[in-house]
Automatic annotation (TrEMBL), chains A, B:
GO terms for molecular function: serine-type peptidase activity. Keywords: Hydrolase, Protease, Serine protease. The keyword Hydrolase applies. The keyword Protease applies. It comes from Capnocytophaga leadbetteri. SUPFAM superfamilies: Class I glutamine amidotransferase-like. It comes from the Bacteria. This is Dipeptidase E.
Length: 233, 233
């Protein structure tokens, strides 16, 4: 039993927080009234309380209560007992560091494998992969490990961006970075564009939204697809 | 005695490898016939030999010999005896990992502090800072530490990019990432645009090229400047 909803981004251009996902969220969290929110990625360094308030607002329209994991005296027990979990985006290095420091990474791995519905956006989706090594984030803090939940047999590159053919900038493109990753790692990488999300139920995977995903396999040319079943499970 | 040349990029739009820096290189390496090249950052995963050949080509017009550090049986001794050092760009996580694995980080720190002329581009400039934590690179490998040379009292963000006011992309801007860095770190950050480089001689710092740099100090609004003396030494 495994239930995952992994989105590239929380917000699309012109929308508000989670607005483009409302229909999907209603379905994914059907029958669940309370969602445990993991706020540790702190986008732009906002506080855990501020971030939880934003998440709460995103779920208001579909009448779900959102409770911040940071408000529990015993976050391990809170995770173990959660009806559903949502990890928001922000800085992946920070998120992973806090999950390890608080002894939560292994518990989160277990409850997700055990069937607790897990939703992630951006950094929260990135950690569902084998490692955080295809994050786009800046290493603002040194994590004890790059290993993450391994809830899927690939890594996710959220906010995937196509090279801009008109750019005069000489920094590496996203594709170049992922190719560099594959010089040292075998894990498949899914480039998930903003507006795309993955819905996973046990051994079924579905790419949703209106875009293709870009699949990167070691020593093979990347390709566009809507069918991710070859890389899952 | 300290002599540093720290460039944002090796190549600017429309130019070839190091072409825009030829005049500066002639001056910086005056009287030096051989440059020790550190190829470990391996851009796009090219080999150490391939990368050294590119560097050699970049120095051909000014008649300098470039020797790859990877070709020495005893790279520690090679570093210690180098007349001048150039570290090329690529992946900073990889560069830092290899420097630590080979026991070279502390030696490089010493020889640079001791006056061996040091040139860096991109990742090679990033490691001149206090830590590698303002790199733009993907964490394709797990380094033993994020600490770097500390040859300057700040961190460098190479390939600094201004936010695109027309972008519909919701990934974090460079400025947002650096602000996140300052939630957890005090080190000043210099956003060094492509086409800019720093020339440092003992206690003097000069920003060169035709652009301003963007200076980020903890809990202060970032500002544009051509005078970096307030952050050095």
């Amino acid at each position: 039993m495994k239930r995952l909803l992994l989105a590239s981004t929380s917000t699309v251009y012109g929308g508000t927080y989670l607005s483009y996902l409302q229909e999907e969220l209603t379905d994914f969290f059907a029958g669940i009234d309370e969602i445990l929110f993991i706020p540790y990625a702190r986008p732009s360094g906002i506080t855990h309380d501020e971030y939880t308030a934003i998440a709460q607002q995103g779920f208001e329209k579909i009448q779900k209560r959102v409770v911040g994991l940071h408000t529990f005296a015993d976050p391990k027990a809170a995770l173990a007992q959660a009806k559903a979990i949502f990890t928001g985006g922000g800085n992946t290095f920070l998120l992973v560091t806090r999950l390890y420091e608080l002894g939560l990474m292994s518990i989160l791995r277990e409850v997700v494998a055990g069937g607790t519905p897990y939703m992630g956006t951006s950094a929260g989706s990135n950690i569902a992969g084998q490692t955080m090594q295809t994050t786009n984030d800046m290493p603002i803090i040194y994590p004890p490990s790059f290993q993450t939940l391994g809830a899927v047999p690939f890594n996710i590159n959220p906010h995937y961006l196509d090279p801009d053919p008109h750019s005069k900038h000489k920094g590496e493109t996203r594709e170049t970075r992922i190719k560099e990753f594959h010089k040292f790692n075998d894990i498949p990488v899914i480039g998930l564009r903003e507006g795309s999300w993955l819905r996973i139920t046990d051994d079924q995977i579905e790419l949703k939204g209106n875009l293709t995903a870009r699949v990167f396999l070691k020593e093979q040319p990347p390709y566009e697809t809507t069918d991710l079943s070859p890389v899952y499970p």
